[in-house]
Protein: K Homology domain-containing protein
Amino acid sequence: LRLLVQSDMVGAIIGRQGSTIRLITQQSRARVDVHRKDNVGSLEKAITIYGNPENCTNACKRILEVMQQEANNTNKGEICLKILAHNNLIGRIIGKGGNTIKRIMQETDTKITVSSINDINSFNLERIITVKGTIENMAKAESQISAKLRQSYENDLQVLAPQSIMFPGLHPMAMMSTGRYCGAPPPFP
Structure:
């Protein structure tokens, strides 16, 4: 699971001497990596959460709670959840005629938007799925979106597996256009 958070929230998520992020990791049993050194000066930072689906959702929910508390303390208003997803998988989140995304919105009582395809380039093949609602509902939506992304990712790997016979030694993910260097973790741990 990869999230995008405002740079000014990163300090609150990490906490004094890493205390908050350690607590989130202990409570959720998921590993949380804040990529604060990437894109220095950018307004948003990526956070990668590793673990089983339930633990990732728990960590995501805790991060949202910390962000809301920080927003309340600084009078920033409502927060939203931003999930990063590979462009190849976005169509399956939206669904035919928007059916999948509409169903997730109805079931979780959230508002979900997906960034434009114009926002991607050869250096960044990820799009942003923005979820708005209560923390509880945003966490439910994250769980459903992540499940769909994971399922789509695994289906793509199965489709690519037979092709790997034609290219011995080449990892199946290398055949997908990921925009990542070899050896990088997959988009969904």
About this structure: Confidence is low (pLDDT under 50) at residues 178-185. Strands lie at 2-6, 31-34, 44-50, 81-86, 111-114, 126-132.
